[in-house]
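Inverse folding, one chain.
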């Protein structure tokens, strides 16, 4: 004897609801384990610190709202402590202005970089405590003051002041992690659309290496990620990025995914930093793990 029609109807409705729920959750990193770290465990870790970095600038309003909505979901799920907006405009950036309003209920502060066209007044230091008595330094640079320096010209007064401040800050820091943030890339990119060679500005790279910088986050660059020595150079995706060619840094390989209008979610523990590259659909398209004073694991 067959099942009554109302039973079949209920089963059908439940099946449809389950299918919709699965489709909604598919590919959303904050609603499922994101990846396996180098230590073999996965998903959110309540004792680790999470933060978000994003490239600022002007976007169509619908793109901006969609991006902020995805970021807010990730911030709420992973209890992100702060957001870094890698921007040319500092506090005047439209993403910062709208983001601080949207994130106000989450009580998540925003920190923004600036490119001040030679004045060099937009640098900052934020010292963040992480579990187990460890500390994280977020060092924001005003890369506009380094433009001449990057072109192998003498630094102006503002650039010299900032370089002295950066060196002193790193020299006196006893933090376990040091992340430097600036809008401009610290590299010159040469080559063709199939392959590029990235030449780092060696003086700044030498300072980073000497004083134990772990990561440089930028808003510009020709590669999403590259690593030289123990330093990871990571670019935040913009709103109009094109597909980027395979990249290498002075012979050291990186990768280029050409993400568009996404953001980065970072997990910081006492032993490693894991970075998730999240696209505008809320999907993790790549992740990398940087072990403390060690090598990046892809």
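Residues assigned per position:
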């Amino acid at each position: 004897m067959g099942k009554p029609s109302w039973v079949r109807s209920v089963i059908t409705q439940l099946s449809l609801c389950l299918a919709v729920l699965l489709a909604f959750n598919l590919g959303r990193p904050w609603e499922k384990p994101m990846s396996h770290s180098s230590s073999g465990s996965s998903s959110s870790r309540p004792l680790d610190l999470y933060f978000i970095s994003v490239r600022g600038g002007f976007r169509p309003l619908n793109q901006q709202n969609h991006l902020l909505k995805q970021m807010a979901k990730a911030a709420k799920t992973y209890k992100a402590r702060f957001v870094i907006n890698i921007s040319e405009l500092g506090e005047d950036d439209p993403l910062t202005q709208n983001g601080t309003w949207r994130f106000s209920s989450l009580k998540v502060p925003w920190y923004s970089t600036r490119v001040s066209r030679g004045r060099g007044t937009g640098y900052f230091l934020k010292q963040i405590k992480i579990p187990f008595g460890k500390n994280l330094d977020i060092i924001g640079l005003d890369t506009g003051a380094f433009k001449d320096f990057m072109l192998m010209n003498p630094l102006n007064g503002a650039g010299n002041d900032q370089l002295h401040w950066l060196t002193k800050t790193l020299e006196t820091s006893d933090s376990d992690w040091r992340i430097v943030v600036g809008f401009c890339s610290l590299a010159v990119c040469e080559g063709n659309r199939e392959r590029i060679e990235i030449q780092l500005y060696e003086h700044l790279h030498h300072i980073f290496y000497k004083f134990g910088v772990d990561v440089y986050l930028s808003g510009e660059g020709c590669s999403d990620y590259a690593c030289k020595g123990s330093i990871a150079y990571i670019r935040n995706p913009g709103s109009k990025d094109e597909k980027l060619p395979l990249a290498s840094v002075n012979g050291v390989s990186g990768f280029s995914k050409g993400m568009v209008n996404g953001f980065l979610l970072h997990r910081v523990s006492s032993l490693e930093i894991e970075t998730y590259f999240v696209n505008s659909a809320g999907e993790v398209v790549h992740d990398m793990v940087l072990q403390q004073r060690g090598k990046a694991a892809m």
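The chain has one domain: 50-297. The two ends are 57 Å apart (CA to CA).
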